[in-house]
């Protein structure tokens, strides 16, 4: 029996998100070619297959899911009953900061008390094995930024992410946890209590409406949402190849401000090599004792360029020692 019920844009977006191998960049390419999500499903297979980075197999997958719309409506009802709101780019509540990104998520699952993400956001990221000094700095910085009115964004991972969320909560501020899994799969499991606390004072976000287990690829991909939501990204500690460095690269590609902690070179840990590299590349440096300076710069972003232009090449050389 044919499905005669009128389909919503959200159902079309959910259908596209269910297609294996079809990421957000390819979805944008489809919309650029056909004009809307609905028009994609009205296209002929050869029209889709001959697009750059597409093929007949992927085109067939896209058109095949058009027969599954009743199951997508059922999925949306299930998520709604779990107090999960599902957003697509056509929803007015979809974060405006993400819409211009070339790889903006087509689906964003949202749960918690923070209904509208309208306050300025700052991302705080770093190592999963932070030093005591880095833990203290993260807690102090997140609390100070929360008290100044910023929403703190991080990835709910162990280490710096956990401290960033906890610091925001301690400052009675808002915080957003961006997951690399679906919202019912909290990773790491020991952060389930923290996830509950975040829901009551902020929100959890995920681009995965269907059950999704943690994987390196998904955890890296979620960084583009963390940085995309934020006006600035702060890297506390990170190895040169650590996950936080992926976040830093996303922030740079998204033309977001990037700040990194300038640790004392006398005690160079491998988890501090990442920030040093970022500073050499132009990230705004701050010392562990300069929490107030970071807050001031972010409250007055026009000063950030002044701070950077006032950093002499001789000073930058000190960071490279």
Summary tags:
321 residues, alpha/beta, DNA polymerase, domain 1, Rossmann fold, nine-stranded mixed β-sheet, 16 helices
Descriptive notes:
With 321 residues, the chain is of the alpha/beta class. The protein contains 16 helices and nine strands. Helix 7 packs parallel to helix 8 (160-170) and helix 7 (132-147) packs parallel to helix 14 (291-299).
Binned strand content? 5-15%
The helix content is: 40-55%
The major β-sheet equals: 9 strands, mixed
CATH fold-level topology of the largest domain: Rossmann fold
CATH architecture of the largest domain: 3-Layer(aba) Sandwich
Poorly predicted regions are 312-321
Give the number of DSSP strands: 9
Structural class: alpha/beta
Shape: globular
Q: How would you write the strand order of the largest sheet?
A: 1-2-6-5-4-3-7-8-9
Computed over alpha carbons, the radius of gyration is 21 Å
Summarize model confidence as the mean pLDDT.
91
Helix and strand succession?
Answer: HHHHHHEEEHEHEHEHHEHEHEHHH
Total domains: 2
CATH level-1 class of the largest domain: Alpha Beta
Distance between the termini: 71 Å
Describe the secondary-structure layout.
Blueprint: H1 9-17, H2 24-34, H3 37-41, H4 45-49, H5 56-64, H6 69-81, E1 85-87, E2 108-112, E3 121-125, H7 132-147, E4 151-154, H8 160-170, E5 175-178, H9 192-201, E6 202-206, H10 216-221, H11 223-229, E7 232-235, H12 243-253, E8 257-261, H13 273-280, E9 284-286, H14 291-299, H15 302-309, H16 313-319
Helix pairs in contact: 1-6, 7-8, 7-14, 8-9, 11-12
């Amino acid at each position: 029996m044919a499905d005669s019920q009128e389909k919503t844009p959200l159902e079309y977006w959910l259908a596209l998100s269910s297609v294996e191998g079809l990421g957000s960049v390819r979805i944008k390419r489809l919309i650029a070619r056909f004009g809307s999500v609905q028009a994609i499903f009205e296209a002929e297979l050869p029209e889709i297959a001959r697009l750059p980075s597409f093929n007949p197999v992927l085109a067939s997958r896209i058109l095949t899911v058009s027969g599954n719309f009743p199951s997508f409506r059922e999925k949306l009802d299930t998520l709604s009953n779990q107090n999960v709101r599902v957003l697509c780019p056509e929803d007015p509540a979809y974060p405006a900061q993400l819409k211009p990104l070339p790889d903006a998520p087509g689906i964003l699952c949202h749960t918690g008390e923070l209904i509208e993400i309208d306050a300025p956001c700052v991302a705080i990221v770093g190592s999963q094995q932070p030093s005591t000094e880095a833990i203290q700095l993260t807690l102090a910085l997140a609390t100070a930024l929360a008290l100044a009115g910023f929403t703190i964004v991080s990835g709910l991972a162990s280490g710096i992410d956990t401290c960033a969320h906890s610091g925001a909560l301690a400052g009675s501020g808002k915080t957003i946890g961006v997951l690399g899994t679906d919202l019912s799969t909290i990773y790491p499991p020991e952060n389930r209590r923290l996830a509950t606390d975040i829901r009551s004072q902020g929100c959890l976000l995920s681009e995965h409406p269907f059950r999704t287990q943690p994987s390196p690829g998904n955890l890296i991909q979620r960084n583009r949402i963390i940085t995309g939501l934020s006006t600035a990204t702060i890297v506390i500690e990170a190895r040169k190849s650590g996950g936080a460095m992926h976040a830093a690269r996303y922030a740079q590609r998204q033309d977001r401000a990037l700040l990194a902690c300038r640790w004392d070179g006398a005690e160079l840990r491998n988890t501090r090599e990442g920030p040093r590299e970022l500073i050499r590349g132009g990230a705004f440096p701050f010392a562990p004792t300069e929490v107030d300076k970071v807050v001031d710069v972010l409250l007055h972003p026009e000063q950030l360029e002044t701070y950077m232009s006032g950093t002499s090449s001789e000073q930058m050389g000190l960071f490279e020692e």
